[in-house]
Specification:
mainly alpha, MOT2/MFSD5, Growth Hormone, Chain: A, disordered C terminus, 2 domains, single chain, about 475 residues
Length: about 475
């Protein structure tokens, strides 16, 4: 496995470079020329990216060795499953709080809170006490919720409400984020492997490295963002929503009222549009099994001695290759619609978990086949996320998107928690030892969930057979998405 991992990362990086060069040749530039030529926009974008990319880097550093660290502290698989469940459950509990907090406390202040809470989460990894580690997982759930909402909220607010840049320029920034994010993930695996294995600092080393990265992020938020707010005007950072009244006046909604309204409108949109409901079902099923995969990939491969940081980089490089293949597939040369790509991604994920039910048989493990299945799953993820993001942008109204996506995440985390609890129960039932059959059964359950997601995708396709809103603009009328 050691040799396999190193050869695989070299092959995947070369593949990504080749796909990137091909994609640049076949796809038009993603950035609007006006945005590129605007020095005020470029400066504002750079200030945002400095902080956000540091936050993402610190987050990725913690991925390769989390399970390994808990095993290093001699915890059983069932105990580790509970730690993961605590992290997922805290994501669910803190999701409403993280959506409300930036409006009440202020967006920049909430980004600083993220840096402090995630640093505390990393420092708890120094302790072998189970309760302290649970507290760390809860802090990690809060931090993850803040990371996925607060930084983007600050950027969009400053972009639109303060600088009055065109909304069409927003994707320019987040396209850069997506491009850098894959590279950061691959690099984080390599750096984590360097610290933990090559330098023999142990699995806690990547978590300790994340702390100064988070402090640098906090410094950028304090200084550069503070200076940007002072120059651009901080007014409106703690916003209230203005609504028209029948007599021509306005009503101010507090942050709490805004959040309540967003949840109510999101639920109404979810229940009134079957396309939204089916897309939410696909997301809940697909992404919940990814959380289970994040828990299981290390115990499946680690007994066979691979460098976990390099394996993590391989997985992230496979995901990068998937996103590049999406760009090629939806280019004007190949004319595939995002719906086609989404169906292919779900089918690949189903086949991956089907392979894992055989490669993880108790007493007869086949680690190379499992590794190949994991790579296939990450390739499917690279195809899935841009496809589902495009479809969400088409079927969910922009003003209701935050509320709808919040409802999407609720069953997603619930299914993941139930899956990990089921694995915990099966392992505990064997007397506290490890259970290869439990892992195999879990992969079998994931395959069934992927099959259900595939049925939901087919139902979505059938429902929207002639729906031009679900097609790429350039391909409308050329091919039928279904």
């Amino acid at each position: 496995m050691l040799v396999t991992a190193y050869f695989t990362i070299i092959f995947l990086l070369a593949l990504c470079v080749g796909l990137e060069l091909t994609a640049r040749r076949l796809t038009p530039p993603q950035s609007a020329p006006t945005a590129v030529a605007n020095p005020a926009f470029r400066g504002f974008q750079t200030i945002f990216l400095r902080a956000y990319l540091l936050a993402l880097w610190a987050d990725w550093l913690q991925g390769p060795y989390l399970y390994k660290l808990y095993r290093h502290y001699s915890f059983l698989e069932s105990q580790i499953a509970i730690l993961y469940v605590c992290g997922l459950a805290s994501c669910v509990l803190f999701a409403p709080f993280s959506a409300w907090l930036p409006q009440a406390l202020g967006r920049r202040q909430t980004c600083l809170l993220f840096c402090l809470s995630y640093s505390a989460c990393c420092l708890t990894k120094l302790s072998r006490d189970y309760f302290v580690l649970i507290v760390g997982r809860i802090l990690g759930g809060l931090s993850t919720s803040l990371l996925t909402t607060t930084f983007e909220a600050w950027y969009v607010h400053r972009h639109v409400d303060v600088h009055d840049f065109p909304k069409e320029w927003i994707p320019t920034t987040f396209t850069k984020v997506a491009t850098w994010n894959h590279g950061l993930a691959v690099g984080a695996g390599l750096v984590a492997n360097l610290l933990a294995e090559w330098l023999h600092l142990g699995p806690v080393a990547p978590f300790l490295l994340a702390v100064p990265c988070l402090m640098c992020c906090a410094w950028v938020v304090l200084t550069d963002w503070g200076k940007e707010e002072a120059e651009g005007g901080p007014e409106g950072d703690k916003q209230t929503l203005l609504l028209g009244t029948p007599n021509g006046g306005v009503t101010r909604l507090s942050a709490k009222a805004q959040f309540s309204r967003s949840c109510h409108e999101g639920l109404r949109c979810l229940l009134s549009d079957r396309r939204v409901l089916l897309l939410g079902g696909v997301q809940a099923l697909f992404e919940s099994v990814l959380f289970i995969f994040v828990f299981l990939w290390t115990p499946v491969l680690d007994p066979h001695g691979p460098p976990l940081g390099i394996v993590f980089s391989c997985l992230m490089a496979a995901s990068m290759a998937g996103s590049l293949l999406y760009r090629l597939a939806t280019s004007t040369r190949y004319h595939l619609q995002p719906g086609h790509v989404l169906c292919l991604a779900v089918l690949m994920a189903f086949f991956s978990f089907f392979m894992l039910t055989f490669s993880t048989a108790a007493g007869q493990p086949r680690p190379h086949e499992s590794f190949l299945a994991f790579l296939l799953l990450e390739l499917a993820c690279g195809l899935y996320f841009p496809a589902v993001s495009f479809l969400q942008g088409r079927v969910i109204p922009e003003e209701k998107r935050a509320g709808v996506l919040g409802w999407f995440r609720l069953p997603l985390h619930l299914l993941a928690c139930l899956g990990l609890l089921a694995l915990h129960g099966e392992v505990s039932g064997t007397g506290g030892g490890e259970s290869g059959s439990g892992t195999r059964h879990m992969f079998g359950g994931c395959a069934v969930m992927m099959l259900a997601a595939l049925m939901a995708v087919v139902s979505l396709f059938t429902l929207g057979r002639n729906d031009t809103d679900l097609k790429l603009e350039g391909n409308r009328g050329e091919t039928d998405m279904y």
